[in-house]
Amino acid sequence: MNKVSTSSSSSSFININSNCNDNQNNNNNNLNNSIVNNYNYIDRVQNICNHIEVENCSSNNNNNSNRKMISNNFERVAIVSYVRTPMGGFNGSLASLSATELASIAIRKAIENVNHPKLVESIDEVLLGNVLSANVGQAPATQAALGAGIPDSVPCTAVNKVCASGMKAVMLGVNLIQTDCAKVIVAGGFESMSNVPYYLTSARNGYRMGHQQMIDGMIKDGLTDPFGNFHMGLAAERCSKDYSISKQEQDEYALNSYRRAQEATKNGWFNEEIVPITIPGTKAKPATVVSTDDEVSNANFEKLGNLQPSFQKENGTVTAGNASTISDGASILILMSESKAKEMGVPVIAYILGMADAAQEPIQFTTAPALAIPKALSKAGISQDQVDYYEINEAFSVVALANMKKLNIPHSKINVFGGAVSMGHPLGSSGSRIICTLLSVLKQRGGKIGVASICNGGGGASAIVISRE
Question: What residue ranges are annotated as transmembrane (predicted)?
């Protein structure tokens, strides 16, 4: 047997070297005897690895003779473009646009920023995070890609890892490039929480007499833990209790998030990452251009500290003011192998040094970044002291505070341009959005190494380490 299938597609499989094919039965017997008699476990693994190659399965390269050995020395993966839309508030400035329209706008701008005539034809795959797909339509990632002018011959895949979907899409793109299955990847995420429908769960089988309940699709599929049947906000309350983080601390953190986001907006520090969006006018309303995040200007510093708990009425600490806001938006990165970027003459913005996922009990998802970040740093060969800036998604203020405490990260290094509390949290986009913002932070502040991490429902988190050129 000289091929081991790893997918239903014939374009992706593992080949055993041809020197294992001659006199197969004799060789197998000799190899088995040798393994049993002469090798320990590590030697066996090394022996097998020495005979395994991976096909070059790039969509644009069908030459089966072009193979590379898998080793620890993967080719570096470069970020050559990053873009996000402004983040619209719930039923806010971007509510008239569908989720896939938002993604198409971001993809189109990311391609435009590279400014290379052959970029579009070089794209091997599109990977996009999306959480709330109800009523978005079939193949949302393909809708987004075709809407941006990417050919219909390019494979497209939607990824759902709840809040970490956008980051996981980027990580999967890195994997494809590292294993020589692709050279150019469009990756990111998108969400329109304003357009998520309500469900009539019994309508298909018919209703009987009496009132019936509508289910909020956004709450059910995006914001409710299915294992304990509780809102994500109650997990934040659990985190607040476990790590003795008071409402006052969370409120002060939220105020700082707004201050930082307002300063970054005022000084134009988001300008390179945000693509302005023109909203068509109507007879009653002229066309408008949206170029900043809706929520940034909505802070009421006097009232924020007086808001009542939203999820746990008695002794609760998490409020609408110190939690992230429901939002619409999209964020996109274009990834290339280092050799492809050099071949095309495309400037590199940053390299991805390492990445990791982590998971624990679902109710403790809030502190999973404290597990994922050290794993990603270890894979990158980077110490925590070498990191200049962090982006840890502010699903709730307590999430950032707890992970800062667990990892001993100073507030001066984390979310320095604000975060999801002040900017918004469109679920499928946030994981890639914080990478975009981290790139802006590193450029504006002169940093070299950055880490982005995001927790996700179900107990997980993802983290990625980047180095700016």
Answer: none
Q: Letter for the amino acid at 31? A: L
Q: 57-198+213-350, what's its fold?
A: Peroxisomal Thiolase; Chain A, domain 1 (3.40.47)
Q: What is the 3-state secondary structure (H, E, C) of 392-453?
A: ECCCEHHHHHHHHHHHCCCHHHECECECHHHHCCCHHHHHHHHHHHHHHHHHHHCCCEEEEE
**SS3 for 361?**
coil
Q: In which band, very low, low, confident or very high, does the pLDDT at 298 lie, cut at 50, 70 and 90?
A: confident
CA distance 252 to 242: 19
pLDDT at 16 over 80: no
Residues in contact with 277: Cβ distance below 8 Å, sequence separation at least 6, in sequence order: 85, 86, 94, 97, 102, 105, 289, 290, 291
Ranges in the chain annotated CATH 3.40.47.10:
57-198+213-350
Over residues 147-175, the mean pLDDT reads 99
Q: Which of 57, 156, 163, 239 is catalytic?
A: 163
Q: Per-residue pLDDT tens for 317-356?
A: 999 999 999 999 999 999 999 999 999 999 999 999 999 9
Q: Is 163 a catalytic residue?
A: yes
Count of other CB atoms within 10 angstroms of residue 465: 25
3-state secondary structure of 50: coil
Q: Tell me the pLDDT tens digit for each residue of 412-452.
A: 999 999 999 999 999 999 999 999 999 999 999 999 999 99
Q: What is the DSSP string of 178-233?
A: HTTS-SEEEEEEEEEGGGPPEE-TTGGG---SS--PPEEHHHHHHSEETTTTEEHH
**For 77-103, how does the pLDDT look when each residue is reduced to its tens digit (9 = 90+)?**
999 999 999 999 999 999 999 999 999
**Is residue 455 annotated as part of the catalytic site, yes or no?**
yes
Structure tokens at 406: 């667990």
Q: What is the dihedral of CA 388, 352, 330, 183, to 10 degrees?
A: 160
